[in-house]
Automatic annotation (TrEMBL):
It is found in: Membrane. Its main location: membrane. This is GABA permease. It holds the Pfam family AA_permease. It comes from Brevibacterium ravenspurgense. Gene3D superfamilies: Amino acid/polyamine transporter I. Keywords: Amino-acid transport, Membrane, Transmembrane, Transmembrane helix, Transport. It is a multi-pass membrane protein. It comes from the Bacteria. Belongs to the amino acid-polyamine-organocation (APC) superfamily. Amino acid transporter (AAT) (TC 2.A.3.1) family. The gene is gabP. The chain crosses the membrane at residues 12-32, 38-61, 82-104, 124-142, 154-174, 194-220, 232-255, 275-295, 329-348, 354-379, 399-418, 424-442. Residues 14-441 form the Amino acid permease/ SLC12A domain. InterPro entries: AA-permease/SLC12A_dom, Amino_acid_permease_CS.
Amino acid sequence: MATTQLQKRLKTRHLVMMSLGSAIGAGLFLGVGEGIAVAGPAILLAYVAAGLIIISVMRMLGEMVAADPNPGAFSYYAGKALGPAAAFAVGWLWWVQLCLVVAVEATAAAQIMRSAFFPDVPQWIWVLAFMLIFTVINLMGVGSFGEFEYWFSFIKVAFVILFLIVVTAFLFGLTPGESPGLSNVQGIDLAPSGIGGIGTGLLIVIFAFGGIEILAVAAAETADPETSIRKAIAGIVLRILVFYMGSVTLMILAVRWDNPDLAENPFVTTLTTTGLPAVGAIMAIIIVVALLSSLNANVYGASRMVFSLAHRGMAPAATGRANNRGVPIPAIMVSVLIGFASVLVNAFNQDNVLFIGLNVVGSTLLVTWIATVASHIVLRHRAERDGTPLPMKMWGYPVLSWLTAAALLAVIVLGMFAPDTRTQMLWTFGIFAIVWLIGVIVTRGKSVEEVTGGDELAPDEPHAW
């Protein structure tokens, strides 16, 4: 029996654990070292700045989710606040980003499996295996997805906590390695590259948090979106303060910041310093788990976005159908096409898959976050004008909302002066402009009500907006 509705089968514990693990991926395990290399110990200032931006954006998104949960999330809110073309552009750009990232993550995980464990197995076979496994997991239903993502996130969180404990013990001389005490930060320039280095580090840190916005999509399929998103966002603050900043602080204390190995492989280098065995193999497994966790979440997020777009008349109607268990099978199958296509690319041109994918989608998250902030400012203004009660509110509105918008624009300006990031941003903004123009044509003559309607969730519930 076919339906057009999703089922609310995710539990609050699923969303809370996803909030703790959603951004613990390659951005943390590998990107941290690059940030330390360009900014030195002052990278902590970049984490503070980036953390404040992320927390503010997610609080705004949480306000909108609690008031009106929808699997289209920021695309849906952009439609209500900024018009049909904005909904189309934001939704499709995010969908393309996730589909490409699925291919990138499958490829990265396959490279590690081949280089660290099975050098005789062709890379494309691993990519095919990962794509088949996680397509099946998503086809099993949102409850199965939630359980797999819960345990993936649990493994990542447990490892980071163990890392914090082990390195702290090392610094106190409780492991086989010789503790440096505080010698690695004594008598050194804490900001060796000055403001410019901190700015470059900020860009690296910002991109490391990509994917965190998927919580807004998943919250719509929980029985109590308001409670779930509130707890999940509280978890984000914990993760940034403890996991990211705690890990970076301990790395800088345990290993000299200018050690080239730290830039290349920060966690392995730091753990090796403690004198504990088998670090490389353990770390390789953890990174593969982190990549596959993100792959799983991105297949889910992409399928829900195209499903929502279909319900709002901006995607083929067939992708808006679900089976009697609320599984949007057509949307899932469309969302894994690029991932399966990457199997062929890996077979014939495996060295360029990561480069192509990352250059296209590297800064797409900035568009998503800016759209989120703009939508929040408009919708919050309307709610206050109309006297609409909101179950969850952004702090310090409107001052903090506008300051966050200004900070994101400053990040874009900063990125345009960095050669590596400039390429990503030009790709992203060029694609966004094209998709926006297509959206203007596709949604011509449609009202805001027509592109924000639909019955994606079952059962229907009243919303604040």
